[in-house]
Amino acid sequence: MARRGGLGADDQGGFDRPRKHSRPRTKERPDYFGAPTARIVTVDRGRYRCLLDNGTLVTATKARVIGRKGVIVGDVVTLDGDTSGSEGTLARIVEVAERRTILRRSADDADTFERPIVANADQLMIVTALADPEPRMGMIDRILVAAFDAKVSPILCLTKADLASPDELIAAYQPLDVPIITTRPGSDLAAVHSILTDHTTVLVGHSGVGKSTLVNALVPGINRAVAEVSDLTGKGRHTSTSALAIPLPQGGWIVDTPGVRSFGISHVKTSSIVAAFGDLTEFAEQCPRGCHHQTGAEGCALDEAVADGRLDHLRLASFRRMERAFI
Ligand SMILES: Nc1nc2c(ncn2[C@@H]2O[C@H](COP(=O)(O)OP(=O)(O)OP(=O)(O)O)[C@@H](O)[C@H]2O)c(=O)[nH]1
Ligand SMILES: [Zn+2]
């Protein structure tokens, strides 16, 4: 006679095992639909400063559901808990939206650990002084490579045009099709504004190039806003190495990166540089397997393309310089 569950009803082996998958859930996973979303503007010692869509600045921690996943500046997050932004309150980050881009760097080339620094940026502005400090093309090239790799559009901003001519740098970077902006004290920033509007643009540059001067000119009153953020961290000045995202009055964001002085690019692959030079890919496909495309590379189809006029030699020279920047 068949009894329901008869088989193995007294079978120790079958029923003593913990039934991991059939245990009833004690708690339903909460549904965060309708919960406020915010942008991470800075990170300081495990505390995340988030700007709600309504303009409220909220301090938050990571909820346990986030686990070990990193939350970085530029991330779009869902908040739970107290999102009033009142002093002493703490919200919880319960969801991190999928990132459109991640800008990474390794601190230097010896450090192969890649650190994500900014999420969801679509532009990267390399701020370089034309003098004082002297421009370093190697540095510009490395940052360009990092931008191409992250599929973030680079922009070159040449400051201190009152001290030296930009002609040489413009000639060097024009073949890359990178927008180039020059500034000087009191210069009209309309071109800068229009390139930044409705984008999320990360600013990188060496100390002293005039990045703060530029940010202050772009965002009136930001001195005060920076001070507010540092006050809330309990320190007199903003000493965090975190990036700081600043909303632009006309729409869009700029992300200032005080910590990024060097730009290790040990995580970048050759293929992503070739991919960044879309017009070169069709030629490179004709190269011998494993071709590094450098000067003297045997049978490199890029040389042939230049020889028969299909490719501008300056463009190839720029591509090779980019590749050399990290080989
Ligand atoms: N001649 C000239 N000086 C400038 C220009 N822009 C900025 N400076 C000066 O350059 C110096 C450095 O400017 P900052 O804006 O502090 O440079 P920074 O890149 O923010 O430097 P850190 O704060 O150290 O990261 C200051 O003395 C500025 O007044 C410019 O277009 N021309
Ligand atoms: Zn080649």
UniProtKB/TrEMBL annotation:
Gene that encodes it: rsgA
GO BP term (any one): ribosomal small subunit biogenesis
Domain EngC GTPase residues, every copy: 119-261
Protein name: Small ribosomal subunit biogenesis GTPase RsgA
Cofactor note: Binds 1 zinc ion per subunit.
Function: One of several proteins that assist in the late maturation steps of the functional core of the 30S ribosomal subunit. Helps release RbfA from mature subunits. May play a role in the assembly of ribosomal proteins into the subunit. Circularly permuted GTPase that catalyzes slow GTP hydrolysis, GTPase activity is stimulated by the 30S ribosomal subunit.
GO CC, one annotated term: cytoplasm
Main location: cytoplasm
Keyword Glycoprotein: no
Annotated compartments: Cytoplasm
Annotated positions binding GTP: T159, K160, A161, D162, G205, H206, S207, G208, V209, G210, K211, S212, T213
